[in-house]
Amino acid sequence: MLRARLLTLVLVAVAPLVSGCGGDEPTVALLVADGSDSSSRAVDVEGFTDRVEATCDECRVRVYDAQGDADTQKSQARQAEADSADVVVVVPVDADDLGTLTGSDLPVVSLGELVPASDRFVGLQGGRLPTQAGTDLDAAREVLRGEEESMTYVPTRATSEQAADVAVSFLAGDPLAGAEDVDGVESWLFRDQEVTIDSLTSVLVGQGVLTIDDLCSGATEKRCARLGLR
User: Fold this and answer.
1) Which in 23, 78, 124, 134 has the greatest CB count within 10 A?
2) Residues 37-66: pLDDT tens digits?
3) Strand partners, 29
């Protein structure tokens, strides 16, 4: 996503919509696999944090970046527990190597790939998230220039916001509607979409992922004019 920037600092969120989420300054720990991996469509940290801010009064979001290292992520999982996290949302480096996390008393929400024994899961209907070099804008402009026939759009912001809602539901002690069962885990699943030249604007612009100005500037401006996109 264009606005997704994986942060390694602590973000304090205060919002007016839901109060009493489970104690003073309840904490959501967000463990990301690799904040520097531009091919990942696993998490929109900004979208996740904004959603927590909008739905949980006085919540704190702590973001831990494993930088692609499974051992680092296991250490960060232990650190999140030591930091008194109330719920953990994890984008796993190695989903099968997080037994120390799921073996604790902390509620665990898997994002992108199901971590065995996690409490909840948010991901795609087709399974694991696809990877794609560069940003959605990079991929869209390649399709526009005719360098690629299509791109895969993953609704990263929507899945990240859903994961935030699931985390807040744990803090508030409230059930969350719309789940289905995946391997015995309560799950919320989304669809990715194959986007071609014919659906660039209806999908990416229509869903607010990009603007026409994003798509049709610089080297692609004349191409957009020939195609009647602006």
Assistant:
1) 124
2) 877 788 999 999 999 989 988 898 999 999
3) 62, 88
pTM: 0.84
Q: Which helix (H) or strand (E) holds 213?
A: helix 212-215
Q: Are 112 and 128 in contact (CB under 8 A)?
A: yes
Question: What is the identity of the amino acid at 228?
Answer: G
Report the amino acid identity of residue 192.
D
Helix (H/G/I), strand (E/B), else coil: 65: strand
C-alpha to C-alpha distance for 73 and 163, rounded to whole angstroms? 19
Amino acid at 77: A
Q: What DSSP element (H or E) covers 141?
A: helix 136-144
* Closest-CA residue to 151 (of 208, 203, 213): 203
Task: Show the CA angle centred on residue 182, arms to residues 173 and 111, nearest 5°.
Answer: 65
Pick from 188, 123, 167: nearest CA to 29: 167
